[in-house]
């Protein structure tokens, strides 16, 4: 089935408020005393907008290196992209290292004894201290994505090539691959191990950067180009109009889109039934090695698209399944009210709208005025 651009535009105009959620994430802060790196680390945690719409739904975690400078824009972009089902909703965690040179390099360089080569200890901190602590506080699923820039991009490259047991995906923006005579690239040349799980999905990018930065990137892509996809599942991009400092913004957006390529089941104007969506994500799980359950925004977008194309039964079924999973979501209850009303089921529409209104008031929802407006309209029918 296909949704015309005219009909799609009309749907978006009528229900735009359901989709504009960029910047709407809650941030919490916690501190962890690490025995592995002998530091107290501050972690900033951005929860998805839908986090409190369910008591059981688990979210992948995205660990942002250099969190003091990179956390805000990455959390905002994850929030925006997930709203439109381009990537999954994730819990974004920003962590900062006091001793970047030591923590983000995996070899100790002559002249930097004691100040470099500590990546293994930093990895133990992330894996054995940070993530367990986060799991105590939040509903985190067993899917971990890491991202880093420059020296921390070298570190996320190290994780992608040395710790497939720990992470599932990695973004390396302008990585400092020149470190220690391109030591990491020399390691990759010898890498032939094949794990039972799919290889790490790895996105590497480079801006308009000269000398050893560009040389490292070129060496890396040449080495990866002759490796089997069973060893490395990678993509690379160059951004010639960006500098080293501006690259993280576009690099992380493109990296997220690359890693979760194919995630959106209806990326353009086509529509699918609930059964077709479930089959689609069943196949996607095989490709990713992890089952990503549908989120609030997927149920919402896919259900409304189906309804506005005239497949009201599809829309109702998708949204009813959505409120079954996310029983506390004012967004889904309000959309379900819309679709019931389109199907001339005013009684069910009002019941769903009343539920949406109650939840919106409890959550102090930014959608409250729009939900109230639909509720009033339904009561007047």
TrEMBL record:
Q: Which GO terms describe its molecular function?
A: hydrolase activity
Asked if the Swiss-Prot or TrEMBL record annotates the protein with the keyword Repeat, the reply is no
Keywords, in A-Z order: Hydrolase, Signal
How far does the signal peptide extend, from start to end residue? Answer: 1-26
For the keyword Hydrolase, the answer is: yes
- Name of the protein described by the UniProt record: Alpha/beta hydrolase
């Amino acid at each position: 089935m296909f949704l015309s651009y005219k009909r799609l535009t009309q749907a978006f105009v009528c229900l735009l408020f359901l989709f504009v959620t960029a910047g709407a994430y809650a941030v919490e802060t916690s501190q962890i005393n690490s025995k592995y790196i002998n530091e107290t680390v501050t972690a900033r945690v951005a929860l998805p907008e839908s986090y409190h719409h369910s008591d059981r739904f688990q979210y992948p975690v995205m660990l942002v290196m250099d969190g003091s400078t990179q956390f805000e824009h990455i959390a905002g972009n994850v929030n925006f992209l997930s709203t439109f089902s381009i990537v999954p909703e994730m819990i974004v965690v920003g962590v900062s290292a006091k001793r970047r040179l030591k923590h983000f390099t995996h070899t100790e360089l002559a002249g930097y004894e004691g100040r470099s080569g500590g990546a293994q200890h930093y990895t133990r901190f992330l894996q054995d201290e940070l993530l367990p602590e986060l799991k105590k506080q939040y509903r985190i699923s067993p899917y971990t994505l890491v991202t880093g820039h420059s020296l921390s991009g070298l570190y996320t490259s190290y994780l992608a090539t040395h710790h497939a047991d720990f992470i599932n995906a990695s973004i390396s923006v302008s990585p400092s691959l020149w470190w220690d005579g391109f030591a990491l690239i020399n390691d990759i040349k010898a890498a032939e191990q094949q794990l039972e799980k799919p290889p790490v999905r790895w996105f590497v990018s480079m801006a308009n950067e000269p000398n050893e930065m560009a040389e490292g990137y070129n060496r890396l892509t040449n080495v990866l180009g002759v490796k089997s996809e069973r060893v490395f599942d990678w993509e690379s991009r160059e951004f010639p109009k960006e500098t080293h400092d501006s690259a993280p913004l576009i690099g992380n957006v493109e990296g997220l889109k690359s890693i979760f390529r194919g995630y959106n089941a209806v990326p353009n104007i086509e529509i699918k039934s609930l059964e077709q969506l479930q089959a689609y994500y069943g196949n996607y799980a095989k490709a990713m090695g992890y089952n990503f359950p549908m989120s609030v925004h997927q149920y919402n977008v896919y259900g409304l698209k189906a309804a506005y194309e005239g497949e009201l039964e599809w829309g109702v079924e998708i949204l009813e399944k959505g409120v079954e999973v996310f029983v506390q979501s004012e967004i889904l209850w309000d959309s379900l009210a819309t679709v019931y009303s389109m199907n001339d089921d005013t009684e069910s529409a009002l019941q769903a709208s009343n539920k949406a209104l109650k939840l919106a008031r409890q959550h102090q929802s930014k959608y409250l005025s729009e939900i109230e407006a639909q509720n009033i309209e339904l009561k007047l029918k």
